[in-house]
């Protein structure tokens, strides 16, 4: 069988371009309107996409002036989308720094039961002091600490998801015995961050456990992904960078004793699609014109840890910025921004335009054919197992992708024409994990 | 207008009788089958009930042999039910002891947005050492501590729900300003249990905040209910007990400066309904015969803090049981059990039968007319503003209630024949709370 692409729809309120909400077609209240999200989910499913994805952080980003800022909690919102779709995978972001394993493992297992095996978890450690301050902290835990906690969090979650043997429910009405207590495996976990004694209060879910997804690209993040992730989202600007990331992560997965094929790597792409290249570029320009640089400059200054006054819209970034080592927040995002600006010698205004379009992800304007080519080029050249599709304007950009790009990819034999399995893991060509606790059935 | 009853459907897997899952009609896997829950929700909505309710505890109760033990997480499950219904209120239980205010307030606000203003929160402090041990604790926090934390939790949640003025979203596309940062009110809360700095990442929800429900009847629990609860679930065995509770709680609400009418009191009733009284009693007997007393005896011994050997199935409870003061778990439930056993001089076997049927709630077997009479009698005599309907067998018992008892109550003018409002608060005759932060609009 030819190698097949995997496609994920990264949904946002009005689109990934920060000014998309200002277009006449956009509903600025869409973020809290479940009908809007259901519409997008159905479009993605019409395109036979593997999954859809919701980002998240448990904090209100500063400047609600800038763009729509309401964020329905993702496990809850995905449950609503499970009811509006039948096949597509549903990936929610949740933080290991600001949750408890018992509660979160349980919510994902619940979503997996409710959706018939379509749940995925994008595991993040949540950069930023402002989030920490919503959760009893006065300081941001260090990058190292956050990833250590994340590893223990996932270890405990795996034990919780495996705490019922697959055959623990007997349902023996005649004998009056519902379940077999001897087929429970309480974690009895005692570690530096967590103590979790008891079994989950849910039978093992259709997928065994949700698909584990990861999206941090720092040294710690890659180590974590190599150990746990079954799919990886990443922001890569050039083919060479994407190839280097791809080779590195697959190598790390192998070194961690895993089959590198079971870690699917999906760089992001922000496609501006139109019938002609010129129209596609015009759409990008129209959106960029709607950016208000004062908001974006303030955020950029925060990310770079300089004062806004140190940034001049019509000059390049100043010298003397910190090294990635000194950043305790989102390390890889920081490096990506600085590298992009230096490599292309962008002014602050140009940099803001690029980031406003895709927040560091690759932006691409072109015809459906050109977008398909761009995707195939990376896919064929060792840079990607698939893509994270981040339409600049939603829902229109997703419909354009599904109706015009997907058929080309299907025609080239690169993408499915119908769902072949029922679970998210099926879509990604991954098997249901065996329960680590249950003894092998005697022959 | 005549005073109107409020009715809540308390849903469980196969019903409130612990042996209901053993009946031929019951699907023992129903607990994790979202279609089953949607069916029940639609039946409750067909009956024009005010709300439906899910209990919860973040722990696996011992003895999965005894009865179905899977428990989909309630905020997630209710979101699925929101998509399957249009009017009925949706009340989820969640613990203040094992959650963080920012996360939980956000999930309830999300559910309120997604359901169009139908969310309610049953606030519990979660009794039991086994739950504590799933959340990093080696000891159960004391009853007093749990209620102190609960009060601070709700205070912070209210501030989070009010952290956006109702008019904070400007959606001004022309000016490029989405929201007004000056109409945000970050809690900046620093208290003994929580520090929560920032505003919620969601605009204020349709109801302002979810309906606040409470179900603990101890001294601490009543104090808490008087301050915060808009609806109260309670287990009461006799008219006199229910009247005393009703008077006491209304008085406390008044003393706390609230209008007692804004606290709706709903005792539980477990109605076994059949065309004749004899058939209803036969249904109860059939169910009681299916109870396996060894499971129930073990749990009763735990609740009473004695060894199982101290309980003889064919004798009354032993002497020398602890006082409520010494119980750090579910105080009022403990007292209810002991009082019931002593008052009616029940053997352990009889007590187990009574508790197996309704876990301490009033059980009642009769014709639809008799059930309607039982309800009206308490309602007319200062014991209830409505009822928590706990069918022994589900979905059948709920359908029987909706199709045979509700029409009688409607015919007597005691219950609505159609939904008049759109939100859960509308159904309970409560108004949308004003935002405590926002300054009154200048005239
Ligand atoms: C496509 C994509 C989506 C992401 N979504 C989130 C998110 O929803 N929440 C979050 O806190 N971080 C998100 N991140 C950031 C990373 O998960 C990670 O937290 C961040 O890059 C910091 O980790 P690092 O220092 O290892 O790079 C995302 C990254 C990518 C590439
Ligand atoms: C109808 C009803 C439903 C209840 N549901 C829950 C529940 O879902 N979870 C829980 O921990 N306690 C539940 N309780 C128990 C109380 O909320 C409370 O936690 C318990 O009675 C201990 O509090 P107390 O000591 O103040 O009575 C319920 C009680 C009643 C009457």
TrEMBL record, chains A, B:
Superkingdom in the source lineage: Bacteria
GO MF terms, alphabetically ordered: monooxygenase activity; oxidoreductase activity, acting on paired donors, with incorporation or reduction of molecular oxygen
Gene3D superfamilies xrefs: Luciferase-like domain (3.20.20.30)
Residues the entry annotates as binding FMN: 56, 93, 143, 147, 217-218
InterPro entries xref list: Diverse_substr_monoxygenases (IPR051260), Luciferase-like_dom (IPR011251), Luciferase-like_sf (IPR036661), NTA_MOA (IPR016215)
Domain Luciferase-like: residue ranges: 26-383
Keywords: Flavoprotein, FMN, Monooxygenase, Oxidoreductase
Keyword Repeat: no
The UniProt record lists the keyword Oxidoreductase: yes
Family: Belongs to the NtaA/SnaA/DszA monooxygenase family.
Protein's name in the database: Monooxygenase
Taxonomic lineage: Bacteria, Bacillati, Actinomycetota, Actinomycetes, Micromonosporales
């Amino acid at each position: 069988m030819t190698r097949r692409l995997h496609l994920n729809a990264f949904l946002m309120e009005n689109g990934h371009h920060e000014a998309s909400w200002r277009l006449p077609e956009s509903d600025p209240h869409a973020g809290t309107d479940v009908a809007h999200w259901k519409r997008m989910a159905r479009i993605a499913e019409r395109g036979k996409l593997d999954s859809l994805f919701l980002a998240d952080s448990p904090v209100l980003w500063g400047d609600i002036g800038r763009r729509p800022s309401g964020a329905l909690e993702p496990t809850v919102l995905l449950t609503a989308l499970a009811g509006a779709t039948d096949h597509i995978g549903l990936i929610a972001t949740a933080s290991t720094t600001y949750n408890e394993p018992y509660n979160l493992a349980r919510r994902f297992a619940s979503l997996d039961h409710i959706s018939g095996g379509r749940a995925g978890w994008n595991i993040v450690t949540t950069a930023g002091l402002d989030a920490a301050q919503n959760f009893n902290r006065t300081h941001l835990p260090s990058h190292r600490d956050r990833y250590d906690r994340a590893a223990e969090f996932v270890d405990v979650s795996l034990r919780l998801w495996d705490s019922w043997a697959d055959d623990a429910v007997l349902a023996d009405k005649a004998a009056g015995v519902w379940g077999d207590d001897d087929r429970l495996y309480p974690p009895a976990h005692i570690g530096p961050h967590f103590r979790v004694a008891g079994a989950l209060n849910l039978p093992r879910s259709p997928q065994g456990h949700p698909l584990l997804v990861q999206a941090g690209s720092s040294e710690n993040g890659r180590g974590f992904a190599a150990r746990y992730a079954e799919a990886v989202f990443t922001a890569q600007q050039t083919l060479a960078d994407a190839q280097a990331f791809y080779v590195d992560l697959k190598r790390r997965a192998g070194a961690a004793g895993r089959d590198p094929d079971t870690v699917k790597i999906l760089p992001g792409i922000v496609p501006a699609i139109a019938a002609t290249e010129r129209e596609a570029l015009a759409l990008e320009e129209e959106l960029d014109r709607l950016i208000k640089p004062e908001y974006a400059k303030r955020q950029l200054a925060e990310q770079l840890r300089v004062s806004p006054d140190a940034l001049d819209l019509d000059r390049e970034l100043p010298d003397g910025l910190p090294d990635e080592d000194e950043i305790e927040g989102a390390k890889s995002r920081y490096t990506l921004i600085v590298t992009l600006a230096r490599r292309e010698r962008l002014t602050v205004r140009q940099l803001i335009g690029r980031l406003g379009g895709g927040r560091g992800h690759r932006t691409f304007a072109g015809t459906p054919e050109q977008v398909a080519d761009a995707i195939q080029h990376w896919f064929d050249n060792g840079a990607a197992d698939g893509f994270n599709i981040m339409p600049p304007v939603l829902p229109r950009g997703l419909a354009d992708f599904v109706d015009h790009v997907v058929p080309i990819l299907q025609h080239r034999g690169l993408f499915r024409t119908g769902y072949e399995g029922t679970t998210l893991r099926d879509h990604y060509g991954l098997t249901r994990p065996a329960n680590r606790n249950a003894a092998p059935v005697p022959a």
